[in-house]
Amino acid sequence: MKGVLLMQNAEKKWYIDSSGPKFFSLDVTGACNFKCLHCYNDSGKKLEDELTDEEIIDVARQIAEFQPESVCLCGGETMLRSNLLDIIRILSEKVPAVNMVSNGSLFNEEKLIAIKEAGLSTLQISLDGLNSMQHDTFRGVVGAFDKAVESIKIAKKVGLGLYISFVPNKLNHETLIEYLDFCYGLGVDSVRIMPLIPMGRGSRIDSLLLSTEEYCTLQLKILNYKEKLKGTSQMLEWGDPLDHYMRLPNNTINGYKSLTYEVKANGNITVSTYLPLVVGNVRKHSLREYWENGYADIWENPQVLDYIGRIKNIYDINNMEPKPYTGEYYYVNIME
């Protein structure tokens, strides 16, 4: 989950005249120590063509030179990147907000202090249930719930901004209110809820997908709980994975440039987290070169518009050809 952009809060001139994107997403590794049932990018083993430590440091420096408003470090499991602290330090020198997502399994107080001192602003930990049955079953690792909760408490103690991500499914949706009470009781700043996307490993667990009626009930619970949070600093967010497919192409009509820039762990430069649209690779050209030769206007690219125009709901994503995260890509060659 990569955050919510509120266009109405931005000055139009910034987006028109900007020499770079507002937000970056960088996958620091494809490796993961979990086997989550719903993982859309099918993380597990380290990618054979993953960027070396030296290459990813160079990418971090390139990102920092854009001076975006924020960078999200993603994975895989981010803590499995050996030079993670170096990446954070480089980014935090020029980026106001450096954020990171994690399953929370590899932290202790010493590591979280080191991450904060390196310059991390906010940590997002996945917690998909109110108990071990709900979370551990979904995440595929016994003890994952207890470790995630422990990491949440320590992250709060050391002073990191703290977000929790939650994927509703048949195991956990009925206890949403109790779950939210539990999370906010831990002192988290925000809970981000996003639907289970039927792609990657998520395409193989139809039995856990909520029905339309269950999603409607869930949405009502979320809206009612938001009323409860009014007057507090805590947030509750619903992430729509399809929103940017409609909003960003429309933004180009008003002269907006691309707000986001995505780089995968193997150096591939992509258009959207959930689609196999690749415009190039950092091993061929710099991020600046791609930006100036088409990525800034990628949301008006005919190939991109044709591809996303076929997506009407989350179920369409896994029916696209090539399927996302199968090792096959749809190339949008803006430089080659």
Provide a compact summary of the structure.
By secondary structure, this protein is of the alpha/beta class.
Main attributes?
TIM Barrel, Radical SAM protein, 12 helices, 336 residues, alpha/beta, eleven-stranded mixed β-sheet, 11 strands, disordered N terminus
What does this structure look like?
- It comes from Petralouisia muris.
- This is Radical SAM protein.
- The protein has helices spanning 12-17, 53-66, 84-92, 109-118, 132-139, 144-158, 176-185, 212-229, 243-253, 287-292, 302-308, 314-317, and strands at 23-27, 70-74, 97-102, 122-126, 161-166, 190-193, 235-238, 260-263, 268-270, 277-281, 330-331.
- The protein is of the alpha/beta class and 336 residues long.
- It has one domain: TIM Barrel, CATH 3.20.20.
- Strand 9 and strand 10 (277-281) form a beta hairpin.
- Helix 2 (53-66) packs parallel to helix 3 and helix 4 packs across helix 6 (144-158).
- The longest helix has 18 residues, at 212-229.
